[in-house]
Amino acid sequence: MPAGFLPYGRHWIEEDDIQAVADCLRGDWLTTGPLVEEFEQAFARAVGAKHAVVCANGTAALHLAALADGVTPGDACVAPTMSFLASANGMRYAGAEIIFADADPDSGLVTPASFLAAVERAGRPVKMAVIVHLNGHPADLVEIARIAEQHGITLVEDACHALGGRYSAEDGQIVPIGSCSHSVMTVFSLHPVKTVTMGEGGVVTVNNGALYERLKMLRSHGMVREPGRFVNHDMAFGSDGAAAPWYYEMQYLGFNYRATDFACALGLSQLAKLEKFAERRATVSRVYDRHFSDLGETVRPVRPSAGAEPVLHLYPLLIDFAAFGKERAQVMAELRSRGIGTQVHYIPIHRQPYYVGRDGPADMPGADVYYQRALSLPYYPLMEEADAERVVREVKQVLGING
Ligand SMILES: Cc1ncc(COP(=O)(O)O)c(C=O)c1O
C-alpha cells in the first residue's frame, strides 16, 4: 500500500499480539488446545452470553448455527438481502430455501415490517431467520424477536459487524449484542477488517446448553468422546464396563470447522483491547458525523438506531451520485488517486446470479436504493482524527461540496 493511503478497513496488530501468538507456537498445541476454551470463556464474558463456540470463520459459524437449529433441505429460512453473502449462504449450505427480507433504504437494516413481509411471502412455516446488524447499527431486535416468536421462527443474529455494541431493550435497559437476549444464537466474525481479529475466525454465542453441546459436536465431525454420551454401548465398553480408550462416536454429520490454538491466542490478545478499539473507532465517527450530518439528503451518514450504543464496523456515506453529476466508480477512482480507499457494502444478495437463477428476480426496493447510494469511507482504529479530517476534505472536494 502506498505511504499515506487510507484503506477502507485495516487490522491493528501490536507487539503484544505477536508475542501471544509466538508463545503459543513455542508450546505444545497448534490446533485445539487450552487457549480455545480460554478464548471462548473470555468471549462469552465480553458479550454477556452463557457460552461461546469458536470456529474457523464467521461463515462456518452461520452454517453451524443453521445445523444446530436442525435446518434441513427444503426448509424456508429468512435472510437479509443487504448483507454479505454468508448471511444467506450459512443456511443455504444446510439446504434451506432462502426468503430474502428487504432493507430500510436509510440504514440498510431489516425492519420489523420487511421481516414480516418476508415471513408472509414464504407462504409456509419459516424455520430460522438471520438478522444482521449492518455496519454495527443494531436492528430492531425487540420487535423482530416478537414476530419471530409469534411465528415459531428461530432468530439468529449476524453480529459480524457489531462486536462490542449495545442496544435498547423493552424496558429501556441497554443490552450487549451477543448476549442472545432476543435471539437463540448470535454469530461473529474475527476476520482482519472486523473489530477484533484472529486472522480467520468465527464465534457462535448461545445460552441454551443443549445447543451449545450440539454446536461443539458439529464443529468437529459430529463426534463425541465422552463415555456418558455414547449410544453404541456394545462397541464402546469392555467387559469391565470401562470405555475403550480409542473409542469415539459420530452422531451427526459434522465438519472440521475448528479454530487453531494460535488463532485463539491472537483472539484473546485482541479481545482484551475491545474497549480501546471501540473508542478509537468512535473518534473517527465523531469527525465524520460532525462534517457530514448537516449536508442534506444528497450526502449523509447512515441514521443510527434509536437508543443504541453501537461499535461501528463500517462507516458508509449515502450519496446521491446523480445529484453530483458523477458515477460512483468515478468518485471511487478520484478518491483513490488522492490516497483514500473506499468500498461498497454490499451488492444485495437477492441480485446475485446464483439466487436469481434459483428463485427468479425479486423486488427489494429498499435494498436497491441503499445499494445505489452506499460508499464506505476509511474506518479503522489505527486512524487518527487528522486522517478522518483528510478523508472529509477529499470527499468534499471530489463531490464539489463547499465548506
Ligand atoms: C455480515 C457478515 N456476515 C458474515 C460474514 C462472514 O464472516 P467470515 O468472513 O469470517 O467468514 C461477514 C464477513 O465479511 C459479514 O460481513
Please indicate the percent range of residues in DSSP E strands (runs of 2 or more): 5-15%
Oligomer: single chain
- Look at the structure and name the CATH superfamily of the largest domain: Type I PLP-dependent aspartate aminotransferase-like (Major domain)
Number of domains: 2
SSE order, one letter for each helix or strand: HHEHEHEHEHEEEEEHEHEHHEEHHHEH
CATH architecture label of the largest domain: 3-Layer(aba) Sandwich
| Distinct ligands, ions and cofactors found in the model | pyridoxal-5'-phosphate
| CATH structural class of the largest domain | Alpha Beta
What do we call the CATH topology of the largest domain?
Aspartate Aminotransferase, domain 2
Structural class: alpha/beta
How confident is the prediction overall: mean pLDDT? 96
Overall 3D geometry? Answer: globular
Low-confidence stretches: none
Number of helices: 14
- Helical fraction equals 25-40%
The value of Rg in angstroms is: 22 Å
Main pleated-sheet profile: 7 strands, mixed
First-last Cα distance: 30 Å
Query: Order of strands across the widest beta sheet?
Result: 1-9-8-5-4-2-3
Count of β-strands: 14
Q: TL;DR of this structure?
A:
The chain has 403 residues and is α/β, with parallel strands linked by helices. 37% of the residues lie in helices and 15% in strands. The strands form four sheets. It has a seven-stranded mixed sheet with strand order 1-9-8-5-4-2-3, sandwiched between helices. Strands 12-13-14 form a three-stranded antiparallel sheet.
